[in-house]
Amino acid sequence: PASFTFSGEGAKTAYAWAKDAAGNVSAAKTATVTITLPDVTAPILSSFSMPTTATSLTVPVSGLSATDDRGVTGYLITESATPPSATASGWSSTAPASFTFSGEGAKTAYAWAKDAAGNVSAAKTATVTITLPDVAPPMISAFSMPASSSSLTVSISGLAATDNVGVTGYIVTESPAVPVLSAPGWSSSAPSSFTFSGTGVKTAYAWARDAAGNVSAYKSATVTISESDLIVPIITFSAPTANYVYGPKITVSVSASDNVAVRKMELYLDGVLKLTVNSNAIKTSLSMNKGVHVIMVKAYDTSNNVSSSSKTVNRFY
Questions:
Q1: Residue 240 preceded by cis peptide, ω within 30
Q2: What share of the chain is helix, strand, coil (3-state, %, to 5)?
């Protein structure tokens, strides 16, 4: 024969024999062959698991194992479903204890194994939802106030901030010290004005925070507040003197005084403007239905300082 097929691989001995027409069989002559068949069987991943949620891009791996008819020589985890080549970077001779994803969100990891012949297994997958903690503070992008003011309450223009997740609060202070999250004055929207503690050259510091409690660096604005009229008018009610009414109308008599001058007064009933006078006194009568009502008066001085005073009355019949 020109060839002989052995039963398996390894160190093998073949025995050659001959016979004649009379049936005499020769003694054997031997030949020894070591047969090594090519490895074409890929490893099989038997287990691979990761936690379903994580707060870090690096996620622990548990239970990554594989079997092979010759032996597993390498492990690899990727974020791609495309099988890696046996020569790709990242292969490790031992199963990795963790894997670092490229970003947060719903992610799928693909585990692979290879053998010495370069056969790569089919993938086994694990899905993880990664939510990274927010450690980036907001940034104040704009904050401005007029350079001078004759009032302690100064308007704010252009207060804005940005954040990688979202801005949840604004505050303006007179101190460069970072405000605590429990400080009074935090507002969900940017304030339109700020009231300083006194006159002179003053600096306001604008801050923003996010839902994770990160507070921005400040942006400042300097205002010179003059010592002009900063005193609000004083309002005095002459009538009504009682908190109850027995008729359909009530007389309202009220005056205001100021260190400079009162330029305007307004009369409101239950939040609705009823009368405006360009003087420091109002005397009129109001009609009202039965029930409890609120009479409010506002007084404005020539520097536009404003004060208000209210009376609550109950009409019985």
A1: yes
A2: 0, 55, 45
